[in-house]
């Protein structure tokens, strides 16, 4: 069995990235969410916690654990403190990602089911250090009107949505950094049809060893 085909799945907030990631999981892919890895590290990695407290103070702690909301409040909207947060946490996240992929690659040698690994990447411009792991970068592009509608369903106000969008890359950079684009401009059913067609084409390519 060859090593799994690794896809970095990216897109702006409320573009449908998580929906697509979960759908690919139902089709047979193994999903890794970088946000979830980050949360796991904040919750369990003692060294990371010590470094964060040194940089941001004990006020980011709640009962000895990192208070994610307090930490986010410290860095949101401040590029300097955000850069410091990334300097501390990214090495831990990237190390965890490489370890998780390595474990799955080992498992794939004894299983035919783990043929694709999909890594959900919130900010594709922040992962250049591990971009070599990806066989393909797949980006979702959605019209602004649709994204605001999805955000509202998630409980985000228009102001919150705009603030988060300002912190992310635009569609032009997504297009530049991605190998494949999927437009999410219709129904969920239509989106799933596009994603399934893409998935099946990659499975066919993997089966041929291309």
From TrEMBL:
GO MF terms, alphabetically ordered:
ATP binding; dephospho-CoA kinase activity
Catalysed reactions, as listed in the record: 3'-dephospho-CoA + ATP = ADP + CoA + H(+)
Part of which pathway? Cofactor biosynthesis; coenzyme A biosynthesis; CoA from (R)-pantothenate: step 5/5
Record's PROSITE patterns?
DPCK
> Where is the protein localized?
Cytoplasm
Is Nucleotide-binding found in the keyword set?
A: yes
User: Which Pfam families does the record associate with it?
Assistant: CoaE
- Origin species, per record, is Fannyhessea vaginae DSM 15829
- The source's superkingdom equals Bacteria
**Can you name this protein?**
Dephospho-CoA kinase
Biological-process GO terms, alphabetical: coenzyme A biosynthetic process
Give the EC number(s) under which this enzyme is classified. Answer: 2.7.1.24
InterPro entries documented for this protein: Depp_CoAkinase (IPR001977), P-loop_NTPase (IPR027417)
